[in-house]
Design a protein that fits this description.
By secondary structure, the chain is mostly beta strands. 11% of the residues lie in helices and 46% in strands. The chain contains three helices and 27 strands.
Length: 444
């Protein structure tokens, strides 16, 4: 009998260890489930939020909490997954794959472009496709267009590795900026600089074996046009480009290719053109060609957010931006042009989310920001994260608040690892992140 008990003791100890780990895990995620969600007013009247509902979720591979702010009140609903859930890519790397729904697109080539996609669910590839589309009317700058490279950085049409032939083509943005989807149809244009000649185009792409269709011709003969990207808002294609000292936003019918409206934003310089200009056009600031786009398909509104330079007060954590608000319900109407400097920290283009929308002269913005509060932390991913809510009316701040949470508690392990090693591990499976942010108007 004693011998039998001795044999059972290791198994019993192992079972006890498993139970202890399980209980501790449930305690940890139970604590996360009871996490802090509190709205703190910083300035202005909270009533400025009465017309909107702010939603989002915060979670990792094991747990999530969906939160909602309506009429200034915060409500939450939490879920602990029965099994670990593979995250559906909150990380957006400019110049990398572009996620549209469950598909991840990448683009390769020059002149003749190959568009590929993988369809993924729970991290598994469930479908794929590719097609080629030609831009025969597009004339590359002299000495450019040799070799091939995948989508990514502007100077390389989008990141990836060159083949044996040296690649010289330069674009304003990564090629993924030229992709847009309406319904089940995909559209593409090339983000060309002003050095290109001939004609750029917007093509309707076909993955079912049919020929791609040229919808729109974009004249580049004037030598002043830079195509920054293509967006979709409801049933409209929206071309974003610059000409001289203005930003032009044009809307097209995707069936006929007919232009149905256009708006011009004055005092707007971008990219290399901004670096070389010193005339009156620079009074609005010089802008990065990269931008963020936020579309409300139901209300037919679009916000474009550009990082801006030229602010004499720019310091660490000060981010000048230009936010353009547009209404596309009837043509294209410019509703707002906000030049603002946020002084609350930096945003990681890979991990930090934001969202914005407008109604009439009121602009609503939510941003996840990392503030530099501890200079000993060498990695920005370990800086404390803040959830800021801003409301502007007629270009002036009327409300600022912060959603207080305990998500920064998850960084303790990464911070301690960083302080004792040459690097650190930032693991989204166990470090909660904000996802799926949205702002919707209330139906009063």
């Amino acid at each position: 009998m004693r011998t039998g008990w001795r044999k059972l003791l290791p198994a019993a100890a192992a079972l006890a260890a498993v139970l202890t780990i399980s209980i501790m895990s449930w305690q940890v995620y139970g604590a996360k489930e009871q996490g802090r969600f509190e709205l703190k007013d910083v300035s202005g009247d909270r009533a400025a939020l009465n017309d909107v509902i702010i939603r989002g979720l915060v979670g990792d591979s094991y747990y999530r909490t969906v939160f909602q702010i309506e009429r200034g009140e915060v409500t939450t609903a939490s879920e602990i997954y029965a099994r670990p859930s593979l995250l559906a890519g909150s990380s957006i790397i400019p110049g990398g794959e572009k996620r549209i729904g469950s598909r991840y697109y990448s683009i390769f080539g020059h002149g003749s472009f190959e568009v590929r996609y993988n369809e993924r669910k729970q991290g598994m590839i469930t479908g794929s496709g590719k097609l080629d589309v030609m831009f025969p009317e597009l004339i590359y700058p002299e000495g450019e267009g040799e070799g091939s490279l995948s989508s990514g950085s502007p100077t390389a049409s989008g990141g990836g590795q060159a083949d044996a032939t040296e690649f010289h083509a330069t674009y304003t943005n990564g090629l993924e900026y030229g992709l847009a989807e309406i319904g089940d149809k995909l559209y593409f244009t090339v983000p060309t600089t002003k050095e290109y000649k001939g004609e750029n185009s917007i093509y309707a792409l076909s993955f079912d074996g049919g020929a791609s269709k040229r919808l729109v011709a974009i004249d580049l003969s004037g030598g002043q046009t830079e195509v920054l990207g293509l967006e979709a808002v409801g049933n409209r294609l929206v071309l974003i480009r610059t000409e001289g000292t203005q930003l032009l936003v044009s809307a097209y019918d995707p069936a006929s290719g007919k232009r149905v409206g256009e708006a011009a934003v004055p005092d707007f310089l971008a990219g290399r053109d901004a670096d070389s200009r010193t005339d009156a056009g620079t009074k609005g600031g010089n802008h990065s060609e990269n931008y963020e786009a936020f579309a409300d398909d139901e209300r037919m509104t679009l916000e474009l957010s550009f990082r801006r330079s030229g602010d004499d007060n720019v310091k660490n954590g000060h981010v000048p931006r230009t936010i353009i608000s547009l209404d596309l319900s009837d043509g294209v109407q410019l509703d707002g042009d906000l030049r603002v400097t946020f002084r609350d920290g930096e945003q990681s283009p890979t991990f930090d989310s934001s969202y914005m929308t407008h109604k009439d002269d009121r602009l609503y913005i939510v941003r996840i920001v990392r503030s530099v509060e501890n200079d000993e932390r060498s990695y920005d991913l370990t800086w404390p994260r803040h959830f800021w809510i801003d409301v502007y009316q007629a270009g002036k701040s009327v409300y600022r608040g912060e959603l207080l949470t305990d998500v920064n508690d998850d960084l303790i392990g990464a911070i301690n690892y960083e302080m004792t090693h040459s690097g650190f591990t930032y693991d989204e499976r166990v470090i909660r992140t904000f996802r799926e942010l949205s702002i919707k108007l209330r139906n009063n």
